[in-house]
Amino acid sequence: MGTDDDGGSAVSDARTPAQIEADIKRRRDTLAETLDEIGVRVHPKTIVGDAKAQVASRVDATLGRAYVGVNRVLSQVRAGFTREDGSVRPERVIPVALAAAGIVGLVVASSRRDSGK
Q1: Which end of the chain lies in a sparser environment, N or C, as judged by fewer CB atoms within 10 Å?
Q2: What angle do CA 81, 88, 102 make, to 5 degrees?
Q3: 32, 40 in Cβ contact below 8 A?
Q4: For residue 59, what are the CA distances in angstroms to 44, 48, 68?
Q5: Cα separation of 73 and 56, whole Å?
Q6: Are 26 and 19 contacting, i.e. CB atoms less than 8 angstroms apart?
Q7: CB 10 within 8 A of CB 1
Q8: Residues 37, 46: Cα–Cα separation, whole Å
Q9: With 70 as the cut, is the pLDDT of residue 53 above it?
Q10: Is the separation of the CB atoms in 28 and 17 below 8 Å?
Q11: Which residues contact 39 (CB under 8 A, 6 or more apart)?
């Protein structure tokens, strides 16, 4: 009867004390490595670092999707105000510019009226 590769309970009378000691040392070293790895994984700094990395990854993904969405909308708006050759369409730009100027004028007039009180 020989020893199991996985360190099972099959023991042979042919094992010498030196072999047994070497096996115990090997298992002790393996256990020490495993405990060190567990210690690193459950250390508060490791847990915080992992959480930060996950949050950063999610934020990056969210910002990336937002950037793509905004870029798509801006491209669509730009396409609405320009012709295929890239020139401006005054019939679309002028009304928007007038509306924007009117809104700015209302905001300025309102702020002057509020500051005069």
Answers
A1: C
A2: 65
A3: no
A4: 22, 16, 14
A5: 26
A6: no
A7: yes
A8: 11
A9: yes
A10: no
A11: none
In this structure, what token pair is assigned to residue 93? Answer: 């730009």
* pLDDT at position 85 over 60: yes
Both tokens assigned to 51:
């959480």
Give residue-wise pLDDT tens across range 62-77. Answer: 999 999 999 999 999 9
Give the Cα separation of 99 and 105 in Å (integer). 10
The answer to whether 2 and 12 are in contact (CB under 8 A) is yes
Indicate the pLDDT class of residue 20, thresholds 50, 70 and 90. very high
Identity of the amino acid at 13: D
pLDDT at 49: 94
95/33 Cα distance (integer angstroms): 73
Mean of the per-residue pLDDT values for the chain?
A: 88
Q: Which amino acid appears at position 22 of this protein? A: A
